[in-house]
Each structure stands twice: as C-alpha cells, then as structure tokens.
Amino acid sequence: MTNDTTYRQAIEELETILRALETDTVDVDDLTARVQRSAELIRLCKQKLRNAESAIERVFENLEEEDEEPAPDAEERDVPPARSYPNGQLPF
Questions:
Q1: Positions of the region Disordered (predicted)?
Q2: Were both Cys, which of 19, 52, 65, 76 would link to 72 (CB 3.0–4.6 Å)?
Q3: Is the alpha carbon torsion for 13, 18, 23, 29 positive or negative?
Q4: Helical H runs in the chain?
Q5: Between 5 and 2, the higher pLDDT residue
Q6: pLDDT at 28
Q7: Residue 39, pLDDT score
Q8: Mean pLDDT on 36-55
C-alpha cells in the first residue's frame, strides 16, 4: 500500500475483499493475507479520516478567529472620508 492510495480506493478494495469473504471463495491460505490487507486498509482509512477532521477543525477555528477580530476603522479600510458640503446641504 502506498501513501498515494486514496480513501475511495481503500474502501473499494475493502468491499472487494468483503465480497470474496462473503462468497466463501477464499481458501484458508489466502484468508490470512486478506485479513492483514483489510487491517492495513482500515488503518489507512482511519488516518485519512483523522487528517480530514483535523483540517476541517482548523478551517472552523480560522473562521471563528476571523469573526472575533474587530472590524477595521474607516481609515484602516482605506475608505475615503465623507465629503462635506457648505452649510451641510447637498449640491442638488
């Protein structure tokens, strides 16, 4: 198993092994190898799920941090100052 094995590929291989075991086509000599391979695939899937969970948690933490940051002042946002008119009246 390489690190390039995707979660989907691992699940598909697990399903293939399971189907073979359910049909009783696996002889005893092959059974141990398939069970060991299944264990490797399950470990890989668990690791990928943990990695995905950590990545998603980091995304939500970053979003929460962004929400907690104070809104920048008008000067910090590079917004032009409000225009003033004589006597406070608009030109139209």
A1: 61-92
A2: 76
A3: positive
A4: 7-22, 28-68
A5: 5
A6: 86
A7: 97
A8: 97
Residue type for position 54: S
Rounded CA gap, 77 and 92, in Å? Answer: 29
Sign of the C-alpha dihedral computed for residues 29, 32, 34 and 36 taken in this order:
negative
Backbone angles phi, psi at 74, to 5 degrees: -60, -40
**Distances in Å between the alpha carbon of 54 and those of 9, 50, 59?**
21, 6, 9
What's the Cα-to-Cα distance from 57 to each of 7, 26, 64, rounded to whole Å? 19, 41, 10
Residues 6 or more apart whose Cβ sits within 8 Å of residue 34: 17, 20, 21, 26
Reduce the DSSP state of residue 40 to 3 states and report it: helix
Measured between alpha carbons, how far is residue 5 from residues 12, 32, 40, 87 in Å?
A: 11, 22, 11, 73
70-91 residue pLDDT tens: 776 656 666 666 677 677 676 6
